[in-house]
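Notes to self after the Tuesday call (sharing in case useful).
The group wants a holo model before anyone commits to mutagenesis around the pocket. I volunteered. Ligand is FE2/S2 (inorganic) cluster. Logging inputs and output together so the record is complete.
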Amino acid sequence: MAEDGTKPFKLRISSSDEVFEIPAHRTIVDVLLDHGIEIPVSCEQGMCGTCITKVIRGIPDHRDLFLSNGEHEANDQMTPCCSRSLTRFLTLDL
Ligand code: FES
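Result:
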């Protein structure tokens, strides 16, 4: 766990069922890029919404400023450039 309480989690890709470990110090976007899965990004700070991805299972740890409170509470989409997971597993529609 990082000093700010950020924890690692496992990310599942729905199309391939592949699972990747997301360490506390790296983003979903970074780890997936290592494996040839590219999510379009722009700001990479949760401001623009370019990277918004549908959540299939799990509860995101929303860290963006783009989605509204209601959209955060719905937990059916997230910004993988900066947001993480509150659950041990998170499945994204990729
Ligand atoms: S790239 Fe801008 S919110 Fe993710």
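Two things stood out.
The first strand starts at residue 9 and ends at 13.
The mean pLDDT is 96.
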